[in-house]
Amino acid sequence: MIRVAITHGDINGIGYEVIFKTFEDPTMLELCTPIIYGSPKIASYHRKVLDIQTPYVIINNIDDVQEGKLNIFTCFDEEVKVEFGSATPEAGECAIKALDMAIEDYQNGMFDVLVTLPLNRNLIQGFAGQMEYIEQKVGEGQKSLLMLMNDRLKVASVTDNMPLRSVVQNITKEKIEEKIQILFKSLKQDFTINNPRIAVLSLNPNLADDGEMGVEESEIIAPAIDSMVGKNIQCFGPYPADDFFANGIYTHFDAVLAMYYDQGLAPFKALATDDCFEYTAGLPIVRTAPSHGVCYDIAGKNVANEQSLRMAIYSAIDICRNRIRDEHAHAHPLRKQYFEKRDDSDKLKLQQTDDE
After folding, report:
1. Domain with 30 in it: what CATH number?
2. Fewest CB atoms within 10 Å of the CB: 38, 148, 257, 336?
């Protein structure tokens, strides 16, 4: 059975609450063997305050993991004060200890996939984010790409979460090509989409109004798209973000590449419900995460929705299985018996504008 490691995140947030609510459903234990990297003492305190009766077992050695049980793995045993809703240095220390131990165990082959609960990166000195940290530790030189997704839409961005004033200087043809290729490979390998369609958004409003607002569309984004099409990657655009989402154009594509974080992820969150989550594409490790933050404002109140974590776990399991199948298929390839015939009719339809 697939082993799912789950780091507990910020101990003053909703991490343990959504964990306990997720595994209240016993059928979850039929899908995977969960290992919570955290603290039994902190878990016990959360369960008591929240009055959630989800059973679990405590393990002090990763070799003692029990199938059919919710395993709480002791990453540290010292007493730590839980202060719901507060950003404390102790919360940062507890979060990074759990993440470090999980990464070490992944390197030793002790579990299959990683699900990270949210932490407050401002509490950890020099910490850029969990995705960046994991890439540095176990990325094996490969580049990561953050995707926000549900079963209807997948959105990524060329630039990471940065000030808007820094976006333009970080938009290059090479970087767009890099992100498209990571996205394309992930869609095929991780989601078994044989010939994925990728939409690329513009940087400026109204496609820069023929250059009046900028030249990024004509000199950077369009050439990057053309380059990828030349490598048999189906990508289209650039599309103005407002019309793209408002008119439902996104429904024609398997994934969307925005230029900056809020451009793609803000409308996605407006369209999505509680079932969206994050996936880190491009790395050897399968890592997902719920899309919400630490949620200090509702911590300890037993009102958090666990659906995002549940979907993150489901997807991590699916991706793991898809990678195993992909690896097996490439290890034992079948000789192709026929060749597909296709035309560009779909491409032409997708490139039509409302004026046509």
Report:
1. 3.40.718.10
2. 336
CA separation for the pair 345, 340 (Å, rounded): 15
- Residues 221 and 117 grouped into a single domain: no
Helix then strand then coil, % of the chain, to nearest 5: 45, 15, 40
Sheet of 33-38, strands arranged across: 57-59, 71-74, 33-38, 3-7, 113-116, 286-290, 277-281, 145-149, 154-157, 255-258, 197-201, 234-239
Looking at 271, 295, 323, which one is the last position of a domain?
271
Give the strand pairing for 197-201 and 154-157.
Answer: unpaired
Here the tokens at position 339 are 């060749």
Q: Give tens-digit pLDDT for 62-114.
A: 999 999 999 999 999 999 999 999 999 999 999 999 999 999 999 999 999 99
User: DSSP code of 277?
Assistant: E
Three-class DSSP category at 199: strand
Give just the sign of the alpha carbon dihedral 167, 170, 176, 179.
negative
Nearest Cα residue to 46 out of 94, 114, 5: 94
Alpha helices in 66-190 (DSSP H): 89-107, 130-138, 173-189
Output phi, psi for 165, to 5 deg: -65, -20
Rounded to whole angstroms, how far apart are CA atoms 113 and 4? 5
Q: Tell me the per-residue pLDDT of 292-337, one tens digit each, with 9 for 90 and over.
A: 999 999 999 999 999 999 999 999 999 999 999 988 887 766 655 5
Tally of domains within the chain: 2
Q: Give the 3-state DSSP-derived string for 210-267, with helices as H, strands as E and coil as C.
A: CCCCCCHHHHHHHHHHHHHHCCCCEEEEEECHHHHHHCCHHHHCCEEEECCHHHHHHH
- Tell me: do 46 and 90 sit in the same domain: yes
**What residues make up the domain containing 135?**
1-145+275-333
Task: Judge if 210 and 249 occupy the same domain.
Answer: yes
Token output for 81: 């004060």
